Automatic annotation (TrEMBL):
One Pfam family, short name: 7tm_6
Organism of origin: Phthorimaea operculella
Main location: membrane
Membrane topology, as annotated: Multi-pass membrane protein
BP term (GO), one: signal transduction
InterPro entries: 7tm6_olfct_rcpt (IPR004117)
Gene Ontology cellular component terms for the protein in this record: plasma membrane
Keyword Transmembrane helix: yes
GO molecular function annotations of the record: odorant binding; olfactory receptor activity
The name this protein goes by in its record: Odorant receptor
Amino acid sequence: MFLARFVGKEPFHATSNVLTFNYVKWLRMFIMPIGIWPGEEFGEKMSLFVRCHRYYYIIQGVILLAAQYYFIEKYFDTMTFFLKGYNYLVFLLTFLTWARICTTTQNSYGTVVKTFINTLHLAHRKLNNGYERLVFNIVEMVSFVFCASIVIISSTAFCLFSAAPMVVNYRNGFFTEGVIPNATYNCIVCFTIPKIIDTHDFSVVGTLYTVWLGFACTTAVCGMDILVALMALQLIANILVLRNRLDTLTATKLTDDKETSEETYVDAQTTSVVAFNKEENKIIHDKLVDCIEHHKMISMFTDMMSSFFGPVLGINYGFHLIACCLLLLECGGGTDALFRFGPMTLIIFGQLVLLSVVFEIVATVSEKLPNSVYATPWYRMDAKNRRTVFIMLMRSQRTISITALGMTNVGVTTMAQILKATASYYALLTSINNN
């Protein structure tokens, strides 16, 4: 099958190992080098370098942030307007990378990822009909396309972003003539540690180190966004399957026993309806309990995501609020600047839009869940099943959504506010530059 070739396993099997799906392999390969893949949770053997890097980067990040601040302060008067914006942007990316790697050192990070892989994923549920298999197909294909495209685009953006200053340095003769007096060496990440290193000075080791920092930033920022998006897509799939099971609760005849009639209050009047018999009510009760447990699992995982990824998404929104206008400003610096910053701008804006849209879809599909619960033939059920339906109706009233720092919902409304603020800040900075 076309799907199986890309996903990595034949779908619809309740015991499928999600780790064998190709998009999960892509994600693992992408974030493994900087140590933010929780392989220990799945019994994988992690190298010492990978296990230590996530803790090493916490210390390195603090030192690097201080060194970048010192560099900006030292050369502030000699930097151009665009160079100042570039260094501010790199400082923000360093902080964002440091914050994300810090979150991966928490034990709850491994718990969330393990729950996503081993419990939430739709591959672990028995799919009852063609609609549920279609939902699985579509979500798996979207997951693969999303993961592969972000990995490829972000890797391309990193290469272009890293290559631009190296081309300038080559043209200036640094790689052929060595240290050139009174010449400024261009680096990906600019920082200064007094009496140790200054990236304005040519150094092969320093150059390789900044390239590694750029790679770590790319994988930490884009890799965690991929992971969060994949979780959101599975939430959408689970909610759609749950709604379908409620809609088809009595789609087929349950038993062949003779049905009974009773008077029931429906649509503001007393009408005579065919009630379910005892055996049918027992079958329906089992289905309702399964739906309640499914909804409970979805709600539990949503709370886990909000609790753990809420601060990450909050910092992410703050980063986009400042970085988006800086990127637009840098792209206006000419053809070379557009070549260097264009792909990064596409990635940053794309992540903001994609994550916001995906989480908006989660909230939208969950808002229709109470309608599916109420649409069940509860008026034909016995008192026990009616109470069960009432319990689920009460539970489903709360919209399933992810919040950033517990204050604002992640969705298109917040995204629109950020884009509006970005346009205003960009206009302001452009006028300042022109003056």
